[in-house]
Amino acid sequence: MAVLAGIGVLLSGAVWMTSSAVPRATAAPPAEDLTIQQWLSGREALQIELNNTLVETQQLTAPSSQATTICQKLARVSQQLLHGRRSPQPHLDTAANAGHHTVHQGRTGMPGR
Fold it and tell me: Which residue ranges of the chain lie beneath pLDDT 70?
């Protein structure tokens, strides 16, 4: 019985040593990737401006000089987001820009355009 226990201890030690002998390299998750955080921070002000402008467009009731100003701002902000700095990971551009083409194209049908 003692022999079996000794073999068990040796085998468990061998398994433990081989399982941790070669650490696996993993990419940092986006939340911990500094380049992604910098990219997101760089977009933040424009994204907030776009959201605020979209709220303003929902409050428009008729063509006016205010509608023209809001539409121009919407065009400028959507252009800057669409053609700004690219993400360090290309698949993030697709997600981050989802809907921006529609917003940019839709502004042409706004009052005062």
Answer: 1-27, 30, 101, 103-113
